[in-house]
Every structure is written in C-alpha cells, then in structure tokens.
Amino acid sequence: MLEDKNPSRTSLEELGxxxxxxxxxxxxxxxxxxxxxxxGDDAAVMEFGPLKTVVSTDMLVEGxxxxxxxxxxxxxxxxxVIVNLSDIYAMxxxxxQVTVSLAVSNRFPLEALEEFYAGVxxxxxxxxxxxxxxxTTSSTKGMLISVTAIGTADTEQLVYRSGAxxxxxxxxxxxLGGAYLGLQVLEREKEVFKxxxxxxxxxxxxxxxxxxxxxxxxRKDIIDLLEKLEVHPTAMIDISDGLSSxxxxxxxxxxxxxxxxxxxxxxxxxxxxxxxxFKMDSTLVALSGGEDYELLFTIEQKEFPKIKGxxxxxxxxxxxxxxxxxxxxxRNGSKIPLTAQGWNSFGN
Amino acid sequence: MLEDKNPSRTSLEELGxxxxxxxxxxxxxxxxxxxxxxxGDDAAVMEFGPLKTVVSTDMLVEGxxxxxxxxxxxxxxxxxVIVNLSDIYAMxxxxxQVTVSLAVSNRFPLEALEEFYAGVxxxxxxxxxxxxxxxTTSSTKGMLISVTAIGTADTEQLVYRSGAxxxxxxxxxxxLGGAYLGLQVLEREKEVFKxxxxxxxxxxxxxxxxxxxxxxxxRKDIIDLLEKLEVHPTAMIDISDGLSSxxxxxxxxxxxxxxxxxxxxxxxxxxxxxxxxFKMDSTLVALSGGEDYELLFTIEQKEFPKIKGxxxxxxxxxxxxxxxxxxxxxRNGSKIPLTAQGWNSFGN
Lengths: 348, 348
Known about the structure:
alpha+beta, six-stranded mixed beta sheet, homodimer
C-alpha cells in the first residue's frame, strides 16, 4: 500500500481535524477576484453580484458520525442538511440551496434511501432551501453523506470568526450539552438492547436531549432575531464541536483572549439530571460535548441593552487581550485554561 | 438493521445511478427565486447577480471509483477536481471555485494526504480555480472524496442538456475509449504484480491511454474555442459514463432521437491497438467505456462551417425526430439501437 512506502510519517492523530485541513490548505492562494473568503471560516464567500454567495460543505460517515442502529434514516437526512445550514447561518447569511451526495453499499434498499431523502426534503421545507444537486454512488462499506450548502448575504451583513475585539461580550443561543448526553442515552440503550433484544426502552424522560441528538435544528431564528434587534455580531461560529473548541477558534482567528464564566453556561434541567445520572460534570459536557448547533457570537458592549433579558440568548463572558489567553472562570472563582476538548475524529 | 425491517424492497441495481438520483429528487420543487436549475443537468444554476452561478458535486469512493494500488494519490487529487470542473464546462460556464472534502481511515499518514492535496493544488493552478472550502474526517474503511465545483456564466451563454433540436449536428471533442482501456492495462499489470512482485511493467506503449485514466483533463480549452469560433451549442454534456449513455441523456432531455455514425467515432491509434490486444470491440469501448471527460454537444447545421476541419472536434451524427429513437449506424449500414451501457456503479 502507498502509505507504507514513505519512511516519513506523521500520524493524523497528532493534528486532529482542524489542524489537518489548515495544514493541507495553507498553501492555497485565492486567485479569482470573486473569491472573497476561502478555507478557515464556517463557509466560503464568493462575490458574483450585489450579494455575497456563501458555500459550506460537510461529510458524514457511518460508524464515525452516526450509528444507524439508533439513528432513523429520515432523521439522518434532516440532520445532514441542518449541520450545513448551521454553518451558513454562522456567517449571518441566509441559506438558499443545498446539494446532497450519498454513497451507500448494496445492503440498502431503495426504501431506506427514500427515508433519508424524506428527511432532506423536510429540512429543505422547514428552512426554505432548495436541493439543487447531488450524486449517488455505491460504497464498499456503509453509508457516506456529503452536503454542500449555499447562501447569500449583503457584504455588511456577513460575520466572520475573526472580528471579535477585546471587551466584546461573548453570547450563545439556546442551551448546551444536550446533544452529547442524548448520544450517551442512545448508546446505553443500544448496549441494553444487545443483551436483551426484548427490552422496551423508556426514552420519555430523555426526550429533549435525544431529540437534540437525533433531530437538531439550525438557528435561522437567531439570525432573524439579531436582524430584528439590529444587533450586528463582531464574530460568529456555530457550535458543532463543543463550546471550548469554538471559543478557541474565535480567539485564535480574532487574535483575542476570553473569560468564560462557568455559572453563565446555559443548561437545560434534563442536561443537569442526565449528567448526574451518567456521573459526568455538566460543565465539561457543555464545553466538550458538541453537536448542539447553537450560535456563539461576540457583540460590542454597547449592544447589550438590545439583547438583555432575551430568553434565547445568554451572555457567557467577554473577550480579553490576547496575552491573557482563554479561560474558564469556575464557580469558585478559579481560572482554568480552556483546551480544545472538541471531538477529534482521528483520535480513536 | 434498518433495511431489513421493510418488507417492500427495491434493489438499487434495478435503478442504476441515474434512475436513483432522479427518483429520489423528483418531488423536490425549486422555491428560491435564485434557483434557476436544480438536479438533472451537469450542475445546478443560481442567479445571485448579473452572472449565473453554477455548482456541481461528485463523490469518489475507494474500491469503487479508484484503486490506490495503481492510482498515485497526487493523480487522484488532480482527477477528483477535474471530474467536477468537467461538469461546469459542460454547462458552457467557467469554473471559479472548488471545495474538497475527504474521509480517510487512520492507515493514511499525513504525507499521503499531502500528496492528494498536491494534486488538488495542481488542478486548481492549471484550471485557475480557487479551493474555497472542504472538510476532512475519518472513515472506518478506505478513502472517500467529495468535491463541489462552482462556476459562472452569462445567462445567454449557459448550455443545458435539453436544448438539442431535430437536425442539429452531434459533435464531440478529442477522442474516446482511452480512459477505459488505460484502466484495463492497469488492472492487468496489477494481476501480474500479484503473481510476480518483481516484474517491471513496460507501460510506455500504453502511455497515452494510461494517462487518460490516471490524469484526465477537463476541456476548458473547448469552451474557450467555441467562444472564439462564435459557436453556441444547443445542448451539451460531458462524457463521464460512455458516449452511448450521454447521447441517451441528451435525447431524453431534449426530446429528440439521434443517428450516430460508427465510422465517425474518433479513436486514437493506441485505443485501436489496445482494443485489439484485449480482444475488445473499439466501438463498444468508445460507446460504453466512460471517464474520457470529453464534451459532447449539439449545434445547428448552419454552424457547421465554423467547426469544419477543426482537429479538436468531430461531427458524429445528427439529431432526429424523437419517434426515430437513438441508433448507431454501423460501418455496414445497419441500424442498432443505442442502450445505456454506461457504468452502473450498483450493478456489481
């Protein structure tokens, strides 16, 4: 095999997925005058006319990103679109089109793919985006999904990861940690089912967090809300890999530090009780869990009155000078450096 | 497993990849005023400003679309981009950006992916497109690639598959069948290598066809040539799945028939000799081989003087009334119905 011929080897674990794409694309220069922004933000930006065009792409692999033993295919189709739309909204843009490509082994009958596409159709309907392309092909093993989402925004509307300034407030939509704990519940039920296939799981107490995992939503409503409130974020990112990892992205790309206050992190009661049940620290779950698809953004302090008291938004902390680094200020006041505990897909 | 719960099963073989995507996307309506063209042509078209935006996406799976035992990773990176650019040119548009997503198992070291991206970079340089996004993730088995290409065109410049009219001439660029026979040579050498790992294959006599397989080019030059010649095709498609399959696409979407003349099919001398060596009919190879990435298009008869004698273009036949169907007129004058022998990735 090719990879054994080369005596110089760097393992992918060392880099993780963020380091890898950065490393692999660092020498690509943008040449087209229409290319406004390439790799390094939630989506690429192109200028073809009065509006900017925004494009985002993501690949989902069976056994890595989803487990079909508890993920209904319709939900998977829905979620595959949602995770890409979330990247478009994280640019403060409006999603307009998606393409969906699928590779599946022969073990899938047509009806299974129809279920998948029913989920895609539902997401398109709910978020008012058009499916405009795609590709289906066979795989030697399992199911693979690649989605590209396209959107538009006025130039002055666009929000990058790089615009946060010292003293800006750090704000998050919704609540955190639910999707990760929903996954823990589903994994546990899968193990129970393996031992006793006749067991009937009662997922009712976990309905909220299971839905956060199986049928997440993208926060288009937050983009619309910010417009209505006339709040223009200075930087924004969606939370796909955990709060900690996303904060570090904002800090790195904006060249600032951050103080995040533990007692401000919004947690649903179901998240708190499930974390206790699984003997996990709920703060760590929120910091590292991922897949919540909430929006994390920074605003100037003077904008605070506009968002104050809004039940959809929580101020988590503020940005600092770069030299101060990024820290969690715990409930007892100690300062703990944030590390990227975000999901590293090469780490297993 | 999910697919076993459903008593009603339709096998993917029955549909093939064209039928499948058509079937799965048939109920998707375009809602956005900016969506000009969705699934069903080489690329989607969106209107964001004075120019149309064109998007195309393709997925490549190890063991299905490529074999790393003879496909160098740099070539694979190059080819992954080329196959998508070819779809953009087949719209008579200019490619401007690509996104490249990659899923790989841990058996690949960083250096292997660098090689892959070196090929992507070369294609971007040669075709003057920008890499603007992508995603890398892990796979449980093998390597998977998803590329999305974006381009632009003036509205009047765009060419769909659906514009061919009765009596239009059918024209192809370059020559056909090379990529398929190149693959046969590589497969044969792989078998020889399995038996005797010390054998040194002499691929020199097959250089042209092996290059057609391993490092194909997209015919941007033909788009530029047509513009220079002031020839506006009435319909166009790229040849990824074999001449026969592509002609049937043009006929179906343009609602016409076609007479294709066997003696007009352009074949390189290497293709003729390799076909003999492999005891294959060279016409069948050209009709069914695929992966040549030439452009197949139709023009009005009055345009003929503009392309006459051009070494890059060959008139293969003409479009007929729909009721006449699509036929190959063989060298001895017999009329053989064309069938989609194009590669069916679910057929194995």
